[in-house]
Amino acid sequence: METIDLEGISCQVLRRSGRRVRLAFRQGRLSVVLPRHLDPRPVIDRHRDWILEKHEWFQRQRLKAEELELQRRSNDEFLALVRELLAKYAAILAVKPAGTGFRRMKSKWGSCSPKGKINLNTWLQVLPDELVAFIVHHELAHLRVRNHGPEFKALVRSEFPRHRDLDRQLRLYSLKIL
Description:
Elements: E1 2-6, E2 9-16, E3 22-26, E4 29-35, H1 40-46, H2 48-66, H3 75-93, E5 99-103, E6 110-112, E7 117-121, H4 129-141, H5 150-159, H6 163-177
Parallel strand pairs: 2-4, 5-7
Antiparallel strand pairs: 1-2, 3-4, 6-7
Helix pairs in contact: 2-6, 3-4, 4-5
């Protein structure tokens, strides 16, 4: 894998067979996806201001994330909290998950399988109760609406009117622990 330095910012270059160029920051890291034949330098130079601005924004977010405190819960306390939230929100949403599992995930807090199984990231154990509740509700809401369209957003908003603030907090926690 090729790496280019732009004023101290490591730009990871990924070569693909397509024709599109894509720049993306994920978890504060820049990746530049290019066709195999393209020189990355002119692309990076052309987007230099955007890259520098985005990098600076991520640095500020990282500083905010460092200030966050993680919860200390035993496995039993965490499982009890999740069971309570699953029961509460399953009743509110009138849904029944096919099962619940826990696993460490690199880039998301939870998922809902097509068969109705809810998977939760084990890192939820260190998040505040409100964020755990938000994730559990979000995944259970997918049993009613499979996408993130207006109907889904209305379901989430009905229980969590401050859902945008909670999303922002989750992104900060992602920078800290994922």
